Amino acid sequence: QNKEFVCRGHDYERLEAFQQRMLNEFPHAIAMQHANQPDETIFQAEAQYLQIYAVTPIPENQEVLQRDGIPNNIKSFYKVNHIWRFRYDRPFHKGTKDKENEFKSLWVERTTLILVQSLPGISRWFEVEKREVVEMSPLENAIEVLENKNQQLRTLISQCQTRQMQNINPLTMCLNGVIDAAVNGGVARYQEAFFVKEYILNHPEDGEKITRLRELMLEQAQILEFGLAVHEKVVPQDMRPLHKKLVDQFFVMKSSL
Questions:
Q1: Coiled-coil regions in this chain (predicted)?
Q2: Long-range CB contacts (within 8 A, 24+) of 199-204
């Protein structure tokens, strides 16, 4: 009935399983296969439509999440409890898409959903009271991607240091993903997109953001260096060759910054 809800699925429930559960509950509904805002013909239609997509919780208590010394299980609790706001992102390209470097034109349409009551509550779902839509520029998008990745690396390194991690695979995979992407063009693509004279002259208002991106890239290099030092102390013998490859790749990446 043209209403939106945010629903908390069962523990470890995949999105496909949740969709199927909802379609079993509403057997006459037509499933929409995209997360774009439906057009007016859908809202006015006689038929019943269901549009289901994943959303990300926006924790209210950012102070707890960012403070050092708070146990990770407490942080994990606040990430998914007492949540009023959720969001989802839709990437899109504005203008001509550069085939060599798509970061230049990659915008994000971010939709924030605000509920009538925080989740989880008495019910597993509550109605959306308000939605806000903003567009994030390619540079803002790059800054957020790096901020999130740096935070993820810090958390994994900390867990590894304090022996909260039973095996080091999550840290290995994260280090590998970041270093591999950087060597194969990740960080270099950002440099080509935002640090060139042409971009700086055409976007004088982005001076502070360009400085912020540069700081995050240098910060990431420091975190990776420290992460590799921690990784070296705990890496099992059979993963030594991979560790050596990561160290070699890291120095290639660092020299390109």
A1: 136-163
A2: 203/139
